Amino acid sequence: MSLTLRSISREQHLAYIRSLPSASHMQVPAWGDVKSAWRSESLGWFDRTGRLVGAGLVLYRQVPRVKRYLAYLPEGPVIDWFSPNLEDWLKPMLDHLKQQGAFSVKMGPPVVIRRWDAAAVKAGIQNPDVRRLRDVSATFIEPRAFEVSDKLRRMGWQQGEDEGAGFGDVQPRYVFQIPLRGRSLEEVQKGFNQLWRRNIKKAEKAGVEVVRGGYEDLATWQRLYEITAERDKFRPRPQSYFELMWRVLNSEDPDRMRLYIAQHEGEPVAAATMLIVGGHVWYSYGASANHKREVRPSNAMQWRMLRDAHGLGADVYDLRGIGDSLEDTDHLFGLIQFKVGTGGEAAEYLGEWDFPLNKLLHKAFDMYMSRR
């Protein structure tokens, strides 16, 4: 295979993404605008006939006091990862990024290694001898993913030690997804566990109403999000971040980002953002008030978002990150416990990989980041 790589326009990049069944929302051109602290570039791979056959959004982050960059392709690039000649795709990318002043490259191949259906995850939770998701026999294994991993190592790509949760990567290695392709809404709902079905009915009986919000409702979102951040002890993003996300993503595609608000007796008590690229729909951020949790607004909101994703003809509804610990003492256990009730499946991605183009700067940057 003979491939060439060069910088491409946003229009070329977006047209290529639109030609695919889906791609990560972090690989659309507008995501570079969302990450305004980074410089972005669209890369394109061309075959010998000049046809565009792959694309990647690169984010460049300058290191302090040096005009050198970390080049990051979140959940990308969008290439043929199962190509027998993977080096033909990645070597020209490394050459190009080195010319752009990159001292290190980080990427997240969108390749799933294993999947566990809800029954397998539940069995693992109930088994006192099982501590982690990886200890449970997978429902599905992709052998080609292990070949990709072996090829990357032979090329000199490095992967950090998996500390278990998969949150050592910038993006989560473990996610929870609900397959929608070829399934009716009735079949999807039948997959819910008893608690989820009961909570959805409880919300309906209590009069919880889930509505679509707009840009003007982001202040309502932010208030609930900051309440959630204080409760769960994380640092919230400012409202300006979500306003920017809304503007740039929906300028690129008018239905790329949505906001949902669950109301009870006219009061907003939960909210969530949703992202859409082709047949893949993501539950992106979620928030809820400290009170009225007994009327189960979050369950009602997820059910509405799921129904809307199904109505769009989506192939998958992605609940995003989970930890891989199945022990109820783990601080991330609640995530998997909540999401497994939907009857979906846990998925393990290949994780993020680094290529040090300048080993000294790469190591110094690693040390700088670990001290932050």
From TrEMBL:
<keyword id="KW-0573">Peptidoglycan synthesis</keyword>
<keyword id="KW-0133">Cell shape</keyword>
<dbReference type="InterPro" id="IPR003447">
    <property type="entry name" value="FEMABX"/>
</dbReference>
<comment type="similarity">
    <text>Belongs to the FemABX family.</text>
</comment>
<protein>
    <submittedName>
        <fullName>Peptidoglycan bridge formation glycyltransferase FemA/FemB family protein</fullName>
    </submittedName>
</protein>
<dbReference type="Pfam" id="PF02388">
    <property type="entry name" value="FemAB"/>
</dbReference>
<dbReference type="GO" id="GO:0016755">
    <property type="term" value="F:aminoacyltransferase activity"/>
</dbReference>
<dbReference type="GO" id="GO:0008360">
    <property type="term" value="P:regulation of cell shape"/>
</dbReference>
<dbReference type="InterPro" id="IPR050644">
    <property type="entry name" value="PG_Glycine_Bridge_Synth"/>
</dbReference>
<dbReference type="InterPro" id="IPR016181">
    <property type="entry name" value="Acyl_CoA_acyltransferase"/>
</dbReference>
<dbReference type="GO" id="GO:0009252">
    <property type="term" value="P:peptidoglycan biosynthetic process"/>
</dbReference>
<keyword id="KW-0012">Acyltransferase</keyword>
<keyword id="KW-0808">Transferase</keyword>
<keyword id="KW-0961">Cell wall biogenesis/degradation</keyword>
<dbReference type="GO" id="GO:0071555">
    <property type="term" value="P:cell wall organization"/>
</dbReference>
